[in-house]
């Protein structure tokens, strides 16, 4: 079977197009925009002790970081349920209480976060 230049060019363009669509789907915007929840989880490092122990004091640095997520509760949930958070010993059932423990007035009360609901 002999490929002509135009057939080869058409095949090449089709493969590039399919590849571009696949790359766009992989790098598309998720819960946290173009940044992965695992990467965003590092922003909540000041919350580590408060997210592992419901009796731990929530620091002002933690509350400040959590405040940045209140406009995007889907991202907050994705971060709290991320592999990075799990690896760091974060307990989602405790971490989900941090916005309330910070007394954030604009927290997304009642937002469903996996098996948890934001209080």
From TrEMBL:
UniProt GO molecular function = fatty acid binding
Matching CDD domains, A to Z? AAI_LTSS
By its UniProt entry, which InterPro entries does this protein fall under?
Bifun_inhib/LTP/seed_sf (IPR036312), Bifunc_inhib/LTP/seed_store (IPR016140), DIR1-like (IPR039265)
Sorted alphabetically, the keyword list is: Signal
Where does the secretion signal sit in this chain? 1-20
Residue stretches making up the Bifunctional inhibitor/plant lipid transfer protein/seed storage helical domain: 32-113
Source organism's superkingdom? Eukaryota
GO biological process: one example: systemic acquired resistance
Q: Record's Pfam families? A: LTP_2
**PANTHER family (alphabetical):** LIPID BINDING PROTEIN-RELATED (PTHR33122), OS04G0415800 PROTEIN (PTHR33122:SF4)
Name recorded for this polypeptide:
Putative lipid-transfer protein DIR1
Q: Which organism is it from?
A: Carex littledalei
């Amino acid at each position: 079977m002999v490929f002509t230049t135009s057939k080869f060019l058409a095949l090449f363009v089709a493969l590039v197009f399919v590849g571009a669509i696949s790359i766009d789907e992989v790098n598309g915007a998720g819960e946290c925009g173009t940044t992965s929840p695992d990467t965003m989880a590092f922003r909540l490092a000041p919350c580590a002790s408060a997210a592992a122990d419901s009796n731990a004091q929530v620091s002002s640095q933690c509350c400040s970081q959590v405040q940045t997520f209140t406009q995007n509760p889907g991202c907050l949930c994705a971060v709290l349920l991320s592999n990075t958070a799990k690896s760091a010993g974060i307990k989602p059932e405790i971490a989900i209480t941090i916005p309330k423990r910070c007394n954030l007035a604009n927290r997304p009360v009642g937002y469903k976060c996996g098996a948890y609901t934001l209080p």
